[in-house]
Write a structure and sequence with these properties.
Elements (H helix, E strand, L loop, with lengths): L1 H15 L40 H25 L6 H22 L7 H36 L1
């Protein structure tokens, strides 16, 4: 039974993974950019070029962290599903460009005194860290299952 669940997990990933000689089944297009407006003037205590939404501190943090997690998760999926794809280098280059564009937009429109950038970095790293932890957990469970099967024979 452990062998069956192990194969099921692998087949899900392999179904979408690029394989030479077969047509691509899934090619996710991810493009995330900050979608808030910016102040156009220097009146009423705000500065031109700063995010309008940043005046609502708690809501802005929730939006910023959620948007960063969404971008990071999209990148993780994109990299995972296009591994061994013939244009993998070009996809990686485009992905890196999206990250740089996103980061420069965040730095450009977010007030310096408002955002602690370590939270944004933690949010960006979270999907990758969770995936690594899940992978380690699954490997540990497989080793335990293989050990039990080996002892029972």
């Amino acid at each position: 039974m452990a062998e069956r669940s192990k194969n099921k997990r692998k087949s899900w990933f392999r179904y979408f993974q690029y394989d030479e000689g077969t047509e691509s089944r899934a090619m996710p297009a991810t493009r995330r950019q900050p979608s808030w407006g910016v102040w156009q003037d220097n009146e009423n205590g705000h500065r031109a070029g700063m995010a309008i939404y940043s005046s609502q501190t708690r809501e802005f943090y929730i939006f910023l962290i959620s948007n960063t997690v969404a971008l990071s998760t999209s990148i993780l999926i994109l990299i995972s599903l296009t591994y061994r794809f013939p244009f993998h280098f070009e996809i990686m280059l485009a992905t890196a460009s999206m990250v740089v564009t996103y980061a420069s937009a965040i730095f450009a429109v977010t007030p310096d005194d408002l955002v602690k950038f370590r939270y944004i970095l933690a949010a960006a790293a979270a999907p990758f860290a969770i995936r690594c932890l899940l992978q380690m957990w699954n490997e540990m469970k497989e080793k335990e299952t293989d050990g039990e099967v080996g002892q029972g024979v």
